[in-house]
């Protein structure tokens, strides 16, 4: 899942977007969580961020996408049920 679609973008456009700085509100809206959760993650060091001072925090798009991808889980293999096993 990506924050910005790259369907018709050139490599230079993608590089420019990966350096884009996002606010906690933008990250929270994308993840469908409250901004307060993002700020809690910042204080705990869970999410990568750029801290300009105590109150001003921004997130580099490329860093957040890489961090977000680390939490992606592959689907589990399903065990096929066979009538022989039921007996």
How would you describe this protein?
With 87 residues, this protein is mainly alpha-helical. It has a domain of 54 residues: Orthogonal Bundle (Arc Repressor Mutant, subunit A), CATH 1.10.10. The chain has a three-stranded antiparallel β-sheet. Helix 2 packs across helix 3. The N and C termini lie far apart (43 Å). The mean pLDDT is 80.
> Could you name the CATH homologous superfamily of the domain at 18-71?
Winged helix-like DNA-binding domain superfamily/Winged helix DNA-binding domain
* Rg, alpha carbons: 19 Å
Low-confidence stretches: none
**What is CATH's topology name of the domain at 18-71?**
Arc Repressor Mutant, subunit A
The percent range for helix content is: 40-55%
Give the class from helix and strand content and strand pairing.
Answer: mainly alpha
> How far apart lie the N and C ends?
43 Å
Q: How many strands in all? A: 3
Assess the beta-strand content as a share of residues: 5-15%
Per CATH, the architecture of the domain at 18-71 is Orthogonal Bundle
The ordered string of helix (H) and strand (E) elements is HEHHEEHH
Largest sheet: 3 strands, antiparallel
Mean pLDDT score: 80
* Shape by Cα distribution: elongated
Strand order of the largest sheet: 1-3-2
